[in-house]
Amino acid sequence: MRSWIIALLVGLASGAASAQPIMPEIGQADIEDFIDTPETTRPRLSPDGRFLAYMVHTDHEIDGDVLIIQDLDAEEGTEALRGGFGRFPIINIAWASNNRVLVTLLIDGQVQFGRYFSMSAPIVRTLSIDRRDITQPVVLFESEGRRVFQNIYNAAGNTLVHSLPDDPEHVLMSAYRGDALHLWRVNVFTGEADVVERGNSRTLHWHTDATGFAVMRIDSISNGRQIRVFTREPGARRWRRTRTYRVNELTDRNADFDWVGISDQPGMIYVFSRQEGADRRGLYLYDIANETYAEVMAEHDRYDIQRGIVSPHGGAFLGYAYQADRMEVEIVDPDLRRHYRGIVGFFGENVSVMPEEFSGDRMVLVVSGPREPGVYYLYDRAERSISPIFSSRPRLPPDVLHDVEILRYQASDGLQLTAYLTRPRRGMGPATPLVLLPHGGPEMRDIYDFDLFAQYYASQGYAVLQPNFRGSSGYGRAFAESGYGAWGDRMQRDLDDAVQSLIDQGRVAPDRICIAGFSYGGYAALVGGAQRPDLYQCVFAGAAVTDLIGFVDHWEDVDEDAHEYWQEAIGNTQTDRDRLFWVSPVNLADRMTMPVLLVHSTDDPIVPFEHSRMMADALEEAGAEYHFQIFSDGGHSFNRTGLLRSILTQSTELFDRTIGPDRFSNEPIFPEELFPDVEIVESVKGAVSVLEEASTD
């Protein structure tokens, strides 16, 4: 075994010179390098593994998004097939067969509403293209009329459900007709389509067995906040409701019951499930007819199972993955496991190596870590070689990024917790400034991987600490629910304890600490500033919940299930009213003696904009030093390039003036040229423009 692995590593090293380029020991990236995210699609292997298709974006008006198809068996130096689509973005690529690839484009269409009204809206066109001649594409669904062809619901793309390998002319795809998502049998040579299974306005996904028979349908109700899973055995007509569970936009809690893939046993599929009374989610072989779990495929005593690795051709179970500090992959197929161990040894322990696709003797891998934002590689099992395909952030090579340390610390009540510390280039010591960056949710979690904000702040000289406080997801249901009713209390102490552990070790300056975050993280930042003005020298809060009573009551009018969840997670606004009042930042503004930066978008669909407006009013009344930056098109996540630029710039200026190099200057904390008292919106070109004045009083 040892000699086999060594041989594999030698083969990998000789075939991957360009995968691990020699970098200078120290590099420096600017803000544009961090926010630049080239548009790409996930690389797709043809069913036989010979061809690789993916998209790259160019700024050239004629080419636009370019489809690239590589013949992996061609002689060295053979040019890949390339085809540009002009101003139409490619949003998805999938193989229908070894010779035909499906390319979904997003175009500007005219959508008709009734007889007299129409409007411009994004719609999709899925093309079936012969890989040998891309000049003669076939447009799918073209004959179905405007209820399908001009349907705004299909803007997310027509989804390939099954390639029907025994029927080279057809595939199964899901697409909307009207507001109902149906399953269609589509001819990839003519574009003609017929409905084979009818969904409804609540249907989200279709899944089939190995023969193409639909065995699972997933619906949503209550404005998408409750999921219903229906199953049926092969050949049956009637659907049975198998599971109902609740979802929430502010959590990344894993689905309690979900599809993994087809199996190699008739009448059975692989599913994720959190079984009745179980604390963690496992992966199981599920008997559809008997509604039972036939076999445990993967369970973990601490973490939810996150991924299943199943052969797309035959349904053999190959392995699984779970999120510990990094994504850990366990391969159960003996031959594949030997290859995978060699690959992991080649890349080292500071990254995660996730198999994404398997076809023939080849597989596509994605490699990511704190200093590797994500690179796709192609591995050839026969050649034992690995080569890069593309990087998701080519302007951020490893030499410009910063090391992340995994910290284990003990909370003040004795609970053992985990945090991630991104270290600045100059190292850690008693004079190092620190940014505490709690995650949102709170039922989410941070991981040992690339983090845009942590890496950018570290590039500006700040250590960044990201604790997984109680209430975080990923460690089982009991750990997540241990945060219920503990907002502003035990959850907040976990954050303070993480900071104190670094102070006690002499690794950060006790008088140079700021707390920052978004959503729940923004709430925690404001509460931290109010409860511990002795510990935190500034606060940055984005899209923060500031009034717990108002937030919970808001959901009563919006969605019953969401309201029930928030009453469990935060508290009952009748019986817990006094407690919730005194852990709501809007009622604690007079305790905030440090500068506070608030940002919020007027179109936030999750945390109403009024939360930050009320917080700004309370800070104004208290005579606090603050700035409220209003955006108009940031939603809840602020993921537009121009908005990220503004937020990173303003938050870093706040840190510089309070705990950084400018902390002793006489300049104001919020100079008008950097913190304009105006509403900001991202322009079409991605720049930030001032549109209109927005008073904060």
UniProtKB/TrEMBL annotation:
<dbReference type="Pfam" id="PF00326">
    <property type="entry name" value="Peptidase_S9"/>
</dbReference>
<protein>
    <submittedName>
        <fullName>S9 family peptidase</fullName>
        <ecNumber>3.4.-.-</ecNumber>
    </submittedName>
</protein>
<dbReference type="GO" id="GO:0016787">
    <property type="term" value="F:hydrolase activity"/>
</dbReference>
<keyword id="KW-0378">Hydrolase</keyword>
<feature type="signal peptide">
    <location>
        <begin position="1"/>
        <end position="19"/>
    </location>
</feature>
<dbReference type="InterPro" id="IPR029058">
    <property type="entry name" value="AB_hydrolase_fold"/>
</dbReference>
<feature type="domain" description="Peptidase S9 prolyl oligopeptidase catalytic">
    <location>
        <begin position="450"/>
        <end position="656"/>
    </location>
</feature>
<keyword id="KW-0732">Signal</keyword>
<dbReference type="InterPro" id="IPR001375">
    <property type="entry name" value="Peptidase_S9_cat"/>
</dbReference>
